[in-house]
Design a protein that fits this description.
Two copies of one chain form a homodimer.
Chain A (H helix, E strand, L loop, with lengths): L4 E6 L4 H12 L4 E8 L7 E4 L2 E4 L1 E2 L10 E4 L3 H13 L3 E4 L28 E3 L3 H17 L1 E9 L7 H15 L31 H14 L5 E5 L9 E9 L5 H10 L3 E3 L11 H5 L5 E8 L6 E8 L3 H17 L3
Pfam families (chains A, B): Semialdhyde_dh, Semialdhyde_dhC
Function (chains A, B): Catalyzes the NADPH-dependent formation of L-aspartate-semialdehyde (L-ASA) by the reductive dephosphorylation of L-aspartyl-4-phosphate.
Keywords (chains A, B): Amino-acid biosynthesis, Diaminopimelate biosynthesis, Lysine biosynthesis, Methionine biosynthesis, NADP, Oxidoreductase, Threonine biosynthesis
């Protein structure tokens, strides 16, 4: 009989934790026991796995020596506090927060891009930012073939990236506005319904936001190339699920849109939907939500530069952008014998 | 007593026509008689101007020799049919459609950018595309100071750019979804509510859309510089009013974010809202809708290139992007003696 594992999911009742548990089940991850964990607020609640209910335990009281793998789907503060505890107890941590991503000894893995890094961990593996993951799944094949000098990217990020309260705020504001009532603003700095907000996370000194700098630094780390320039503008849009990106790439060698299209049609994790007809492209709602793939559309040669390629990249931020990528890392771990 | 003019507004009951009439009144345009005109569908309806109701007449039956200025806020087909009739009758046409924009003898005017072109008309002056207008109001001062090699721009365009039926479709789909009901899709190729659609207008052979190529060609014509590269991705977002743009500029000479900020604070038609704090930027809903200015935020030096400047540009697409720009052209015409 093949080996099975005890797995903890920290932040089990959040949007990403929920999706992780659903994916562990649907992908048939070899689980012996699942331990859903949460903070004081969520402990005592119930999640369902393989048809059975499991009570959410308080992460503060949990004995991590019971598990081989701990999936962290909580904030950076929770990861900072409990990931070292889990590692100390012998578990391998896959952390979805930004807490350890910049640490040189922590691999930052997108399984379609740099799976070989799975062998380098010292107990913690970091899951990249959602916007970085989907961009790199689409961009890495081009990088390998033609090299990349620079990436300009403007994002259209859904509110679910901000967690359950952000989803509720968009729904609440929308309903109030359609009923002609005044809205309140709690999660986002300004009205989110029927509006776009050009800020995600706080500001760096250079005028970029932390979310934008994550795309810069994580791209360099994952591709192991500090010469790549990345210039992101990250924007929240009134979409519930699924991030989109207008990606403009400047390659080192010239490459045609046709070559890119053919390359991406063969690329792991990518689905190309790209016809120059009405609706011949992917959107968050109609293609990406609930799907595993990174969808690529609008592939074309940049008419403003010699070596430019434009494309439109869409993916479910809770799945490939978070939970799925983490579960795929867990699958790599199991293949590698932890 | 100062001179007054007879003015026709073609497409008077559309979103842009309505805004034109409101602006002619609020800006105190020297009007003797206003003639609201429409198609068979809207003729017979009523619009209000200076507190009095005016019946909408059928453009097909109108004698344009009665007016000195005809503002066209209808589609390219209506402009193609009736603008020559109006010119023949002696009126000067200001056309908001794309019909004449590419004609070499037709000036394409953004009053803050190239007002001097008012003297060159042969009866028709074209109003640029909404996305082009707001981008150029923000970009022209930088162009004059440091030169521009290329512009990469990703747009976040509101549904009102698609007219009244597009506004109604977003409202209807949103209400149906919030009530758990199935939606229908009529105006947009896919669900617009809580979604983003990376196509506006049809496709060119080069993979860009017509809307994107308008930004390319109109920018070159207005700045009178065919060497400028423009690389747009135009995207419809579920916002009712106000277009936003993530603009990335590659200048010929280096220029700092500080210089750009100071320059734009002095620039005509621009309002800079740019603080590196939560909410320290403009959005369609909270700043731009109903206002005249082009709002510029997120001004920063591109960390991926030597001569790069990024900024976020927001404006009311029905006002500065359409009706206001047309009325400003009419004001220039009056100053120039028609």
């Amino acid at each position: 009989m093949s080996q099975t594992y005890n797995v903890a999911v920290v932040g089990a009742t959040g949007l990403v934790g929920e999706a992780m548990i659903e994916l562990l089940e649907s992908r048939g991850f070899p689980i012996e026991n699942l331990y859903p964990l949460g903070s004081d607020n969520s402990a005592g609640g119930v999640v369902y796995f393989n048809g059975k209910s499991r009570r959410v335990k308080n992460v503060a009281d949990f004995d991590f020596s019971q598990v081989q793998i701990a999936l962290f789907a909580a904030g950076a503060d929770v990861a900072a506090q409990y990931a070292p505890v889990a590692v100390e107890a012998g578990a391998v941590v896959i952390d979805n927060s930004s807490c350890f991503r910049d640490e040189p000894e922590v691999p930052l893995i997108v399984p379609e891009v740099n799976p070989e890094r799975i062998h380098d961990h010292c107990g913690i593996i970091a899951n990249p930012n959602c916007s970085t993951i989907q961009m790199l799944v689409a961009v890495a094949p081009i990088y390998r073939s033609a090299g990349i000098r620079r990436i300009n990217v403007a994002t259209y990020q859904s509110v679910s990236g901000g967690g359950r309260k952000a989803v509720e705020e968009l729904a609440r504001q929308t309903a109030l506005l359609l009923n002609g009532q005044d809205i309140d603003v709690q999660v986002f700095p300004k009205q989110m319904a029927f509006n776009v907000l050009p800020q995600i996370d706080g500001f760096d000194d250079n005028g970029y936001t932390h979310e934008e700098m994550k795309m810069v630094n994580e791209t360099r780390k994952i591709l192991e190339d500090d010469d790549i320039g990345v210039n992101p503008t990250c924007v929240r849009v009134p979409v519930f699920f699924g991030h989109s990106e207008a990606v403009h790439i400047e390659t080192r060698e010239q490459i045609s849109a046709l070559e890119v299209r053919e390359m991406l049609q063969m690329a792991p994790g990518v689905e190309v939907i790209d016809e120059a007809v009405d609706g011949g492209w992917a959107t968050p709602v109609t293609e990406a939500t609930g799907k595993d793939a990174v969808f690529v559309s609008r592939i074309r040669e940049d008419i403003s530069s010699e070596n430019g390629i434009d494309m439109w990249v869409v993916s479910d931020n809770l799945r490939k952008g978070a939970a799925l990528n983490a579960v795929q890392i867990a699958e790599l771990l199991v293949q590698a014998g932890l």
